């Protein structure tokens, strides 16, 4: 059995000059220090210190070997999305990022699965770039969970998701640009509170808006970070659906009826939380996700799965790799 980590990130070597493609929209680039460390930059501003497993394929694979991970699905760091740029610039930017991800993963074929990004602010361009990326060898698409005020139930986004299904291209949804504003400027609260809330918002938004009713059952969709607070608060959402017509106005079924329509990763960091997640979603809907190589990720990927109470060997194998192998299988419907 292969151990497959579906939630890992790369920040390819992108220069300050190349980042000017996103002038006025973040201008993300990588500043290396030459000692195995670096800084993710946003224009002239330091964004976050990082280390070379984020951009060096050899160091990445060495870490995988040390952690017993056979395969990583490699997607861009969300700072690279470029959703705030004009569509033409965003399309050119995504083509650059996608080519760098392919180069990174080509250094360890069979170990690293490249996942592309698209200019989701322009659904037509996003469809074109996803098609090109799939033809070039990308194995999935990585999306942020919203584009400004537009959520995943936006008609343009739904058209893009239907296009991904037609390509047989799985979709990973990652929270970003977190809510909370000035109330969460300290102690990394946007990551600790905002990320789970953003993911819960996206999952419930798709359910209650009726978005899943307008998407094919065969779409392979995964929400990162364990689906946020969705599993823990599903009872609250079901109760609201049954008792308030405002909640159920656009959704013909209660939220719990849709847990078979998507996957989540295992990035919940506590065996008890993972046990609840598996109970809610089913053992065939949860995949190993570590958020490698960031400090807030699981430092030894798969540990929480291996320590989760009540899982049998067959279920552990599904979570560690079996589900992901099916999720990323070429041309296979879920």
UniProtKB/TrEMBL annotation:
One of its GO terms (molecular function) is metal ion binding. Pathway: Secondary metabolite metabolism; quinolate metabolism. One of its GO terms (cellular component) is cytosol. It comes from the Bacteria. This is 2-amino-3-carboxymuconate-6-semialdehyde decarboxylase. Monomer. Pfam families: Amidohydro_2 (PF04909). It is an enzyme of class 4 (lyase). Belongs to the metallo-dependent hydrolases superfamily. ACMSD family. Residues 4-328 form the Amidohydrolase-related domain. Keywords: Decarboxylase, Hydrolase, Lyase, Metal-binding, Zinc. The keyword Hydrolase applies. Gene3D superfamilies: Metal-dependent hydrolases. Its EC number is 4.1.1.45. GO terms for biological process: secondary metabolic process.
């Amino acid at each position: 059995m292969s151990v497959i980590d579906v939630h890992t990130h790369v920040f390819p070597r992108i220069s300050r000059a190349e980042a000017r493609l996103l002038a006025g929209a973040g201008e993300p680039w990588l500043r290396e220090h030459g000692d195995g460390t670096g800084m993710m930059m946003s224009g002239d501003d330091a964004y976050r210190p990082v280390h070379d497993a984020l951009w060096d394929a050899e160091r990445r694979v060495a870490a995988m070997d040390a952690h017993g991970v056979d395969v990583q699905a490699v997607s861009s760091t969300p700072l690279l999305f470029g959703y705030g740029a004009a569509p033409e610039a965003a399309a050119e930017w995504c083509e650059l990022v996608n080519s760098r991800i392919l180069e990174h993963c080509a250094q360890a074929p069979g170990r690293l699965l490249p996942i592309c990004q698209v200019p989701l602010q322009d659904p037509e361009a996003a469809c074109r770039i996803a098609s090109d990326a799939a033809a070039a060898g990308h194995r999935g698409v990585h999306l942020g969970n919203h584009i400004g005020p537009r959520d995943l139930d936006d008609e343009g986004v739904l058209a893009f998701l239907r296009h991904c299904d037609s390509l047989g291209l799985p979709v990973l949804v990652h929270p970003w640009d977190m809510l909370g504003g000035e109330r969460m400027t300290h102690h990394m609260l946007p990551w600790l509170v905002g990320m789970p809330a953003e993911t819960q918002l996206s999952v419930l938004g798709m359910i209650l808006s009726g978005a899943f009713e307008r998407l094919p059952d065969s779409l392979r969709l995964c929400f990162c970070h364990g689906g946020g607070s969705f599993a823990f608060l599903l009872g609250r959402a079901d109760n609201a659906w049954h008792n308030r017509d405002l909640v159920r106005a656009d959704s013909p079924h209660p939220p719990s009826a849709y847990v078979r329509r998507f996957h989540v990763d295992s990035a919940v960091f506590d065996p008890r939380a993972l046990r609840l997640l598996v109970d809610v979603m089913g053992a065939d809907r949860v995949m190993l996700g570590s958020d490698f190589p960031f400090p807030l990720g699981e430092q030894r990927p798969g540990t929480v799965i291996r320590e989760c109470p009540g899982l049998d060997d067959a279920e552990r194998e599904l979570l560690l790799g079996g589900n992901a192998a099916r999720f990323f299988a070429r041309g296979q419907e879920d």
